[in-house]
Amino acid sequence: MWRWRRAGPENMMPRILILIFAILMTGAGVAVYWVLTAHGSSQATQTLDSDAYELWGQHSPAYTVSINEGNAVVSETGVIGMTLSLTGNPTQLLVGQTATLTGSASESTNGYTLGIYDESTGQWVTGGSEQTISASVNQQTPGTHTYVLYLGTPGGAPIQSSSPVQITWEAYQVSIQASPSPADIGQTITVSGQVTAGGSGVPNIPVSLQASGGNLAAANVTTNAQGQWSTTFSATTPGTYTLTATVYGQSTTTTVQVQGATAVTLTATPVSTAPGNTTVTLTAQANAPLAPNQTLSIVDVTTGQTIAGPSNQQTLTTTYTLSQGATNQFVAYLNTN
Fold first, then answer.
1. Three-state SS for 45?
2. What stretches pass through the bilayer (predicted)?
């Protein structure tokens, strides 16, 4: 973190023009405050400051004298005639973009240091002993930051400040969608969206992706020239999944439904039709991969026996021999446990 530090030669101009005042105060708890100012009512103060500027090319420091019950405390409160200015360019931009702060003093800062302070975070941005300092600032989340330029004494606290400058970082808009939905277990789902600002797509913006389950092909993608991005998603268990896209702290979500099999068909193919030996192949086929709690089975309804299964595969096949002259009815079941 940047801190105040000493600058300038040790034989710099005298910091204070010695003024002796005799102040007689009576009564407990009475305090008197006197501030040197080139624009105040003291003609003597203005004259002394003018003389100092002619001699050393610098205005005199301003001091506050506090006298309370006979005890005097002197504290430096600025430099007479010196002004501080701070500018930001630009002052309105998008999250992730960079602004430049430039702070300057109206005269030499020899013996002092300048520092730029972010009042929103409580952190010093930069500092230096030059008459003009600058810094680049970049924020990753939307919001407004207030910056102030300070003048400080070497090794001491700030004594003078500029007017504040506010810089606002605006949020991007990000969209997300998933298709198809509902989808079958294991089916590839396309997840896509666009990052915009002011209604236009923004290229080369990083997008972070998260899913509440399942598998994302990529957790981080970058927008193309039109601000668009895409990846894929799949899941091996049925359910409703939440997909989230985040750009510089701004998030949006969508949901996708993944389902197991919802229907099953049964076919019978004769293997042998010789008298007294009629054999068929029975095939049960689910319309989608089975969920972990689903099974297939084939039942001879005529006898009430399960002749195949239960199986957790999407296809179940068995061969069955009919009794001579018998007519059997078979049914395939999609079971949910």
1. helix
2. 12-36
